[in-house]
């Protein structure tokens, strides 16, 4: 994974925007451990792929 500049929806400071501000990576890719759905308090059903 890598970090990208993904802002917030207009008027919100906790709701992410539908589209990223930039598709360019902010840093080098890194490895993360993803846990099966249901084993974590924060659930992500999909990871966005930005090509």
Features:
flat, little secondary structure, 51 residues
Oligomer: single chain
Number of domains: 1
Number of strands: 0
On the 0-100 scale, what is the average pLDDT?
Answer: 82
Give the structural class: little secondary structure
- Assign an overall shape: flat
Given the structure, what is the number of helices? 0
Largest sheet report: none
Binned, the helix content reads: under 10%
Beta-strand share of residues: under 5%
> Which stretches are low in confidence, meaning pLDDT under 50 for 5 or more residues running?
none
Separation of termini? 12 Å
Task: Give me the Rg, rounded.
Answer: 13 Å
Explain the overall architecture.
By secondary structure, the chain is mostly loops. It has one domain (1-51). Helices cover 0% and strands 0% of the residues. It contains no helices and no strands. It is flat, with a radius of gyration of 13 Å. The two termini are 12 Å apart.
Short structural description:
The protein has 51 residues and is largely without helices or strands. The chain has no helices and no strands.
């Amino acid at each position: 994974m890598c970090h990208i500049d993904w802002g917030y929806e207009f008027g919100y400071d906790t709701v992410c925007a539908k589209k990223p501000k930039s598709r360019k990576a902010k840093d080098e890719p890194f490895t993360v451990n993803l846990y099966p759905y249901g084993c974590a308090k924060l659930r992500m059903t999909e990871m966005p792929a930005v090509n």
